[in-house]
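Repro:
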Amino acid sequence: MLSVKDAQSNILENIETMPAEQIPLTEAVGRVLAEDLSARRTQPPMDVSAMDGYAVKHTDIQSVPANLSVAGEAPAGGSYNAEVKSGEAIRIFTGGPVPKGADCIVIQENTEREGEQVTILQSEPEGRFIRPAGLDFVEGDVLLQKGRLLTARDVALAAAMNRPWIMVHKKPKVAILATGDEVVMPGDPIGPNQVVSSNSLGLAAAVKTLGGEPILLGVAKDTPESLKNMAAGAASADLLITTGGASVGDHDLIRSVLGENGLDINFYKIAMRPGKPLIFGQLNRTPMLGLPGNPVSTLVCSVMFVAPALAKMLGLDAEIFHSKKMAKLGCDLDENDQREDYLRSIIDIGDNGELIATPYSKQDSAMLAKLANAQALVIRPPFAKAVKKGDTVEILELPNSLLSL
């Protein structure tokens, strides 16, 4: 059996990054830059006021109170085009261009206005409350690098850089195919020996969260013809994910049927719990991941294998969706066998602020409710020795949301 690390490496070596496409900035959040993004303007483009008040010469207000004549105003979006002379003040507003000759701003709270005269009540040093041209960035500065996953903050910055269109990596189209006579979709009639499929919808949600576009192909029956016909729907996809049918039973047809229809298998079986019967290969040059049918196995494998695969396809670091930390154990654990364990766990915060991870006592791969409520997976290496409550272990966090500002 292949190790989890070797399986991940094999998948990443055989996955290609998606090509670039141009999109409007309005659709950029959550996308990955395919090129460095440089500013098309200087921000601010000229010296501007940081406050509402009066633009003056600081030499005129070294002794206060100082009486000055109001010679005009400089609103945001407008300007005072003459040069400020000694003894003059210009009414200015936040964002207004600082007129030539003025070198500081006195905020309006520190003034008294009467008609066209203003009394300055507090002295200010040269440069006070002035944002100089280029304070934020200068035209040509590269502010967002290729491979960046764009947040709301990045979109705001790109807008300020005057970039209405950007180049990003295309979203990979991921075809999802469930298999098995025992499986029906939610809401469909359920036979006496059937179960409701959670895998397809859970995987589709994961793919969408990870930046891909899911394509639900439905549920293939346990016949060669049904599997062959439904798998053909993945011809235009960038990645095919199947669930179920990857084991060694008489009705597990993924390897046999798809093997006769162009499936070239890179590996089969990994030393992992949950998730041992996992297939990776190419179906007529489309990368294919064959995940186990048990719902917990499917979703844990999506964390460990689908997430890094999609990250590479999007031009991201393969570990970007993996948040690994160290934590204290909340209970004793027995020694491990040859498979790497991923134990659904809850997280508490200790008195000293440390993370405390407590695995559920039952870890059956059909128990989806515990995965939904888990906050982390405790990772136990193959042949790990028994550990006690309070010992340190590695965890993989399962955040409630991947959305970020």
